[in-house]
């Protein structure tokens, strides 16, 4: 049925999940830069009858700092609307009695304040950027080697993201490096893990087919969402590359220039 | 006849020639140099300074290829990003070898393998590996010696890269329990090493007694 395809499917939607970096803003020096039209687009969604949540694999700052930064860029978003890997990881650590050796950006450390970090029995890596020094990676490697049952939790598995001065390596690269070095498989917390998306859907009280995900990462955002039964639309901002449109395994339900265009298309379908 | 083969990329051939002469040493750096010359690549060299002399004469201006050896000094975020962006723009990724780790004075330390794997994932490209355990590396060393794989034996401390690689080429392999060896390594390759022994002298003893 034509209505099941994008943008027709927007008629029957009840919720939208937005990726943040590359959709709302591009990171870079200082707070980064809001993507043109995104502030307005978010406002339109917030005043519509659609439920809205934000899903990020951002792990350079805790949610409070992150939301404050978005405020400075012009967005009006609150912490409970934002789903990020660190709180999900903390829940997993506590549930399984895991004490982490952390290789994460300093700004994220407060998320782990309530976690016992003595005598580590696992390693948690996030988007540590400059902290991905050889010696820091070596330290994480040695912790894993010394464990009888090594556990590596990776906050996301992204390959790269866009900053204002170009593309930069993301946590997934270092996850693969440690997997190779230690001959183990990491557990991914955050997109595209189905558990992560499900936690957002649970919070919205919606079924997957009632929700649309919009993101710049074809595999993690769009592919991850489709894997859970949602529709996924890719924006041509952020880390998007033209070669994404011919991807071997993931085909977006729709590709739009930016969030502003996506939101206009959605709201037009519903009027 | 004896050939010393090494994946070491931290030292130039000259530094290694302590008690052997140049013809006896075949390094993965030599293999990399050959490849660069053959393809006329201009490399971004992620190689320790001490190994750079094996690349003298090779143009490194405006790099259009990335060469990765064991280079802890270069495995920082900035340099890896630089390599990443070059590869994304079409530069081939050449790995001198993909060792997972090596033995340092203070314990085991990450080799180039993890970083090459990470870059392969980032760019969705496969690296060309020139050192052990690639067949071409062993075959080149053997052709220098003028013998066939089935006439040769490899002694090494890395189950996968030394022994596995050699046996894959048709040689026999002896694993020694020194260097980076860890308990149980002999069970990690199939077929298992022809022999696992405590050290290099023991391996030589075995060869002289049983294999000649």
From TrEMBL, chain A:
Coiled coil: none annotated. SUPFAM superfamilies: HAD-like (SSF56784). CDD domains: HAD_PPase (cd07509). The lineage of its organism: Eukaryota, Metazoa, Chordata, Craniata, Vertebrata. InterPro entries: HAD-like_sf, HAD-SF_hydro_IA, HAD-SF_hydro_IIA, HAD_sf, LHPP/HDHD2. It comes from the Eukaryota. Phosphatase that hydrolyzes imidodiphosphate, 3-phosphohistidine and 6-phospholysine. Has broad substrate specificity and can also hydrolyze inorganic diphosphate, but with lower efficiency. The keyword Nucleus applies. Keywords: Cytoplasm, Hydrolase, Magnesium, Metal-binding, Nucleus. This is Phospholysine phosphohistidine inorganic pyrophosphate phosphatase. One of its GO terms (molecular function) is phosphatase activity. It is found in: Cytoplasm; Nucleus. Its EC number is 3.6.1.1. It catalyses: diphosphate + H2O = 2 phosphate + H(+). Belongs to the HAD-like hydrolase superfamily. Its main location: cytoplasm.
From TrEMBL, chain B:
Gene3D superfamilies: HAD superfamily/HAD-like. One of its GO terms (cellular component) is cytoplasm. Transmembrane segments: none annotated. The keyword Magnesium applies. Its cofactor is Mg(2+). It comes from the Eukaryota. Keywords: Magnesium, Metal-binding. GO terms for molecular function: metal ion binding; phosphatase activity. Pfam families: Hydrolase_like (PF13242). Belongs to the HAD-like hydrolase superfamily. This is Haloacid dehalogenase-like hydrolase domain-containing protein 2. It comes from Labrus bergylta.
């Amino acid at each position: 049925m034509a209505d099941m395809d994008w943008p027709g499917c927007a008629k029957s939607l009840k919720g939208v999940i937005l990726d943040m970096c590359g959709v709302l803003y591009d990171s870079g020096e200082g707070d980064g830069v809001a993507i043109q039209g995104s502030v307005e687009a978010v406002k339109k969604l917030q005043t519509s009858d659609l439920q809205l949540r934000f899903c990020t694999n951002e792990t350079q700052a805790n949610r409070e700092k992150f939301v404050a930064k978005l405020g400075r860029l012009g967005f009006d978003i609150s912490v409970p609307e934002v789903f990020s890997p660190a709180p999900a990881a903390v829940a997993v650590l506590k549930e399984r009695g895991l004490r982490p050796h952390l290789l994460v950006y300093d700004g994220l450390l407060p998320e782990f304040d309530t976690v016992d970090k003595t005598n580590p029995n696992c390693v948690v890596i996030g988007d540590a950027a400059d902290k991905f020094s050889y010696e820091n990676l070596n330290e994480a490697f040695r912790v894993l080697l010394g464990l009888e049952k090594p556990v590596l939790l990776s906050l996301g598995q992204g390959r790269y993201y866009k900053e204002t001065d170009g593309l930069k390596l993301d946590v997934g690269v270092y996850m693969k490096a440690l997997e190779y070095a230690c001959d183990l498989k990491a557990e991914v917390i955050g997109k595209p893990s189905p558990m992560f998306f499900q936690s957002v859907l649970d919070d919205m009280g919606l079924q997957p087919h009632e929700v649309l995900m919009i993101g710049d990462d074809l595999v993690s955002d769009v592919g991850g969402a489709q894997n859970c039964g949602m529709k996924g639309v890719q924006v041509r901002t952020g880390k998007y590359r033209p070669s994404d449109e011919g991807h071997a395994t993931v085909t977006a339900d729709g590709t739009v220039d930016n969030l502003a265009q996506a939101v206009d298309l959605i709201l037009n379908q519903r009027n | 006849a004896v050939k010393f083969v090494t994946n070491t990329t931290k030292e130039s051939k000259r530094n290694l020639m302590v008690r052997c002469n140049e013809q006896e040493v075949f390094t993965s750096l030599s293999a990399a140099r050959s490849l660069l010359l053959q393809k006329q690549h201009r490399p971004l060299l992620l190689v320790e300074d001490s190994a750079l002399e094996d690349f003298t004469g090779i143009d490194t201006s405006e790099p259009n290829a990335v060469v990765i050896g064991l280079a802890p000094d270069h495995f920082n975020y900035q340099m890896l990003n630089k390599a990443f962006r070059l590869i994304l723009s079409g530069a081939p990724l050449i790995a001198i070898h993909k060792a997972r780790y090596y033995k340092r004075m203070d314990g085991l330390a990450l080799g180039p393998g993890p970083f090459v794997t990470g870059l392969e994932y980032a760019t969705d490209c496969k690296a060309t590996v020139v050192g052990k355990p690639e067949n071409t590396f062993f075959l080149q060393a053997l052709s220098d010696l003028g013998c066939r794989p089935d006439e040769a034996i490899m002694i090494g401390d890395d189950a996968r890269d030394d022994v596995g690689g050699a046996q894959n080429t048709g040689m026999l392999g002896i694993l020694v329990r020194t260097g980076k060896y860890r308990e149980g390594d002999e069970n990690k390759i199939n077929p298992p090493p022809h022999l696992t022994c405590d050290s290099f002298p023991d391996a030589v003893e075995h060869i002289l007694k049983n294999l000649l």
